[in-house]
Design brief:
Length: 324
């Protein structure tokens, strides 16, 4: 019961690959290495260097490895950059998802776990995000993920009476952090953890963007979830789909409570042993005080739980980065 992981050489995808293997599900990876790293893929996992935009490559991989399903992680994931590069974002995330769906239909593969994003909600007016909240993305990235969910929904309707009706779920989450394997770490230049790590390694002082928000300590509160927990939820979703079990169209993988930027900075100093006082910079335009998602549905169906403390998140991420 092989599963294809698109984007399996990336930070999140590589953790999903390991979680699949640990569960006894053979993975195969397709990645163009535009942001992923070949070294993140275990040597014993089949690897195809190709773009998800290459329909023939995707279909051939599905057929050759007799895939039971796809965990579609590949995509352009930088919300801020997507504002400057909307056409690239839509090509990778919308057209890429369309091509994957087309290749799946041609190969008779009918199970899909879609790595979506809580960016589909935009800047919600409520502090706790649930799956039924109206979708109002505020970046081309968020829009592309929402359109991806629509494409999947529509393909499921279109194939409902076919030989291989599409079964699917979309997993939405905010900030993925930490490491579940010391050889895999977050390489993004736009995420908080690697930004702080690189500052500390360079002997520089990390910055908090605003400390006058309407939160307990004045800094933004966000969802931070450990990458190993994220990977585990993808695997359970794949198992449910393959077994024909009931599954929701979408799940939030949320922390329920969230962490403030100051709490993250305090943990960074505590865990790394580098004593620092973060600089306070200006607010970033449009940054809401608090955005945190529930994980109730995922806890019910996907064995979702936050199994790591903030110190665990920092420690595993820091150890992986230190091992570079």
């Amino acid at each position: 019961m092989t599963w294809l992981v698109t984007g399996g050489a990336g930070y999140i995808g590589a953790h999903i690959v390991r979680a699949l293997a640990d569960a006894g599900i053979p993975p195969v990876v397709l990645d163009d290495l535009s942001s992923g790293r070949r070294g993140f893929v275990p040597d014993d996992v089949p690897f195809v260097e190709a773009s998800i935009l290459d329909r023939d490559a995707v279909e051939q991989t599905l057929r050759e490895h007799d895939c039971a399903g796809v965990i579609h992680v590949a995509g352009f994931k930088y919300a801020g950059v997507s504002v400057r590069r909307p056409l690239h974002t839509y090509a990778q995330n919308v057209e890429g998802t369309r091509v994957v769906l087309e290749a799946m239909e041609a190969a008779g593969v009918a199970n899909l776990v879609f790595s979506s994003s809580a960016a589909v909600y935009g800047t919600p007016s409520v502090p706790l995000v649930t799956e039924d909240l109206p979708k109002n993305p505020t970046s081309p990235y968020g829009e592309s993920k929402l359109i991806g969910e629509w494409l999947i929904r529509d393909q499921a309707v279109a194939t409902a009476e076919s030989e291989h009706p599409l079964r699917h779920t979309s997993l939405r989450y905010f900030n993925v952090v930490g490491s579940g394997d010391p050889s895999v770490y977050d390489v993004s230049p736009h995420n908080l953890f690697p930004i702080v790590f690189e500052k500390l390694i360079a002997g520089e002082t990390p910055t908090i963007n605003g400390d006058d928000y309407a939160t307990e300590d004045g800094t933004n509160v966000r969802d931070y979830v450990h990458v190993a927990d994220i990977a585990a939820a993808h695997v359970v979703a794949a198992q449910l789909l393959a077994a024909g079990e009931p599954i929701e169209a979408a799940y939030n993988l949320g922390s329920q409570n969230g962490l403030s930027v100051k709490q993250i900075m305090d943990a960074m100093a505590r865990v790394t042993g580098i004593d620092f006082t973060p600089a306070i910079g200006p607010r970033r335009p449009g940054d809401p005080d608090r955005i945190v998602a529930t994980g109730d549905l995922a806890a019910r169906d996907l064995d979702w739980a936050n199994r790591y403390t903030v110190d665990d998140m920092v420690r595993t991420g820091w150890e992986a980065r230190q091992g570079v």
